[in-house]
Specification:
alpha+beta, Aminopeptidase, six-stranded mixed sheet, 5 helices, N-acetyltransferase, GNAT_dom, Acyl_CoA_acyltransferase
Length: 141
């Protein structure tokens, strides 16, 4: 398990699939992550998609609020081997956790982890310009 000042980042468990599927079935979260392309799926379909996502990255961590143990969301870091040693970050939190500074906290941690622990030369991410809250977090990095 990893920790930031207020959050725990831990390995995913099968029991997390319900929370992850609910997170991705939120239309606003889909819009912010996928643009105008919103796909409403059954919980089983989301579970199948998420299983593939969780097997590929160098890091996939469930983010929980330490004080309450509540599910906040997840962070992933996909590590690409080779000469450039770059990684791509993905972070998704439930709406209840927006505006608390958790995104900044986790982003600082995952960037440091990528450079210090994985030896990456570069980290990047993709974000839609209309996702202003996320853009503000990323600019602080």
């Amino acid at each position: 398990m990893f920790q930031t000042a207020r959050l725990d980042l831990r390995e995913h468990k099968p029991s997390d699939m319900e929370s992850l599927a609910a997170l991705w079935n939120d239309e606003e979260i889909q819009r912010l992550c996928m643009g105008e392309y919103i796909v409403l799926r059954t919980e089983e379909a989301w579970k199948d998609m998420l299983k593939g996502v969780m097997q590929a990255p160098a890091l996939f961590a469930i983010v929980e609020e330490r004080e309450t143990g509540a599910f906040v969301g997840f962070v992933a870091l996909h590590h690409f081997e080779g000469k450039n040693r770059d990684g791509k970050i993905g972070i998704v939190f439930g709406r209840a956790w927006w505006g608390k500074g958790y995104g900044t906290e986790v982003m600082k941690w995952v960037v440091a982890y990528g450079f210090k622990e994985l030896g990456l030369h570069r980290v990047s991410l993709q974000v839609y310009a209309f996702n202003e809250r996320a853009v503000a977090v990323y600019r602080r990095m």
